[in-house]
Design brief:
0% strand; single chain; mainly alpha
């Protein structure tokens, strides 16, 4: 622009060419460089641009300790399920072991009628472990923090299956009376 030009001096790139506009869009600090008479390509950035957060699973870091701990917990859970599920199918034997541990002299009235409770408890363990393993696998594939999934899954499944095993024992009148005598007396 010359001194005789009636237009005011551009402040915001109103008279910039298409190349200058693209350069300013590509490099926001280029506006200061252009006003100082330096080309946008030659001007260094004034502030470093922060790296964008990882948004894809491939860009997320792998956590070796998380993977190892997750697999250890899933393995321990599998061994627990394989050992406990068959024992839960026999509620009578489970109750006798419980009574011996608590030093209670009691017998279940009808242990065969309580088989459904044992089947339900074993099913909770098996299905719970399968669901926990599936959720853990998906979380590991997405490279998210995963160790807590088998831990919480194991706690929940064992609590529910343990409750399912104790309910029939507590509902048996003879066993309940013997337990009360032992605890109170």
């Amino acid at each position: 622009m010359s001194e005789t030009d009636p237009r005011p001096r551009p402040q915001y790139g109103e008279y910039a060419t298409a190349e200058e506009q693209r350069a300013r869009i590509a490099r926001p600090h280029a506006t200061d460089a252009l006003s100082a008479g330096v080309s946008p390509e030659d001007s260094p950035p004034r502030h470093p641009v922060p790296a964008a957060p990882a948004t894809t699973s491939a860009a997320r870091p792998t956590r070796v300790a998380d993977r190892a701990f997750t697999f250890v917990l899933l393995g321990y859970g599998l061994l627990t399920v394989l050992a406990a599920a068959p024992q839960m199918l026999d509620v009578g034997a489970f109750a006798q072991t419980l009574f011996q541990t608590l030093a209670v002299d009691a017998q279940l009235s009808d242990p065969a009628a309580l088989r459904g409770w044992g089947v339900a408890a074993a099913t909770v363990l098996v299905v719970g472990w399968l669901l926990t393993a599936w959720l853990s696998w998906r979380s590991l594939a997405a490279r998210r923090l995963t160790w807590w999934i088998p831990l919480v899954g194991g706690i929940l499944c064992n609590f529910v299956s343990g409750t399912l095993m104790v309910i029939p024992i507590m509902n048996d009148p003879a066993a309940w009376e013997a337990l009360q005598r032992t605890v109170v007396g």
